[in-house]
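Predicting holo structure, NAP bound.
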Amino acid sequence: MKTVRIGLLGVGTVGHAVARALLERHDVLSRAAGVSLHLQRAAVRDLTRPRPLAREQLTTDPMAVATASDVDLVVELIGGEEPARALMTAALAAGKPVVTANKRVLAWHGPQLAKLAAQRGVELRCEAAVGGGIPLIAPLTDDLAANRITELRAIINGTCNYVLTRMAQGETLADALAKAQEAGYAEADPKDDLEGVDAADKLCILVRLAFNAACTPAQLHRQGIRGLDPKDLAYGRELGYVLKLLAIARRGPGGAVEARVHPAFLPADHPLARIDGAQNAVHVVGDLCGPVMFSGLGAGGDATASAVLADVVQVARRLALGDPVAPPRDSGPEAPLLPMSQVSTRCYFRLAVDDVPGVFAQITKVLATHEIGLASVIQREPGKLGAAEVVLFTYAAPESALAAAEAELAQLSSTRSVLARIRVESSK
Ligand SMILES: NC(=O)c1ccc[n+]([C@@H]2O[C@H](COP(=O)([O-])OP(=O)(O)OC[C@H]3O[C@@H](n4cnc5c(N)ncnc54)[C@H](OP(=O)(O)O)[C@@H]3O)[C@@H](O)[C@H]2O)c1
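Done. Tokens:
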């Protein structure tokens, strides 16, 4: 094979950067692949927009590209669940390797697509699906293969990290989000980012890879950053913590894997606490390698294209050499997921309470009933509205106990409202 002909599905933010790099870096990429890489044809919705391809290479029929007889390798960059899933399925069924950046399809349909790829003896690669330009999938698959991964904590949504970084400087969530949109870090509809949907999709992919746990995003505990107040970040800072939206996976003592996405306080000396703005980072602990961290640009056309093209080069190289695709690895029995109610964490509560004697006695009684130890307390005198604010940092307790305590704290005669409950992560 002298040329690998690429069919591109989608020429948007990432697809455009991929197409441009294939043209402008043709020599470098072809040398790396050991074969000439040619952008054969591409599918878009709107044929009138300027693209780095000739008009005759473009079509509005993505299925025609996915199954074209003159395409050797399909790069899916349309995004979303459908028609991307159907297009990938058709390409794989037609015996064509697929490279994708599509976390949504992989999170919900990854195992089925991987099975089809294996049946057809072709590759399905997805380096760009998590962490944009950060090499993650290949290191987890290959470089850390000798390790049993014990823990993975990640900042994998740049929009939320940007917003929280600004909230740490005192901005409200609404103001910080408006700035993120102005700077191009947040979509016009940021729902999936703010509600943790995007991070849960990505965590699902990482959990399968790092822990061999079967899961769909629906099985993961998910909580976004809506409702957070800059006051929470300020109180956290007083006690040496930084607030992040974290994707967390950890292997429990019995082998079950906890997997969750939610805002969490991290000790300020943890490497992830220093990841600011739209940056992403994944901190992984292996039993042999210890802690390692991958960080960089989690989004953006060029950064994501870098990861897409790494996959393209790998696939093209194998096609050029005529090498067979390695069969799927034997990863052993799948690990079960630990129910969230059994996950144990430290916790932060912020309460608005009446400024009357005996408030603390009531609060500590509730915590004691649920065997929750109190680590630190901050109390603020009543403000203009007459309510005092009490902040509690607890020791670790099961989620079920923390949730029950929250409900009881809300019912106390002295409590005006439970303003926040945020989990707290430890350094290790
Ligand atoms: N953007 C990032 O920074 C980033 C980072 C990591 C991963 N990703 C992933 O990369 C993928 C692409 O994202 P993106 O930001 O590049 O998306 P995008 O800018 O919205 O581009 C989507 C492209 O697909 C085309 N398209 C959509 N529906 C189509 C259809 N039915 N038939 C033919 N073409 C269709 C669009 O055509 P028109 O141009 O004509 O509208 C556009 O060219 C997604 O899976 C995303 O999650 C993106």
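The mean pLDDT is 96.
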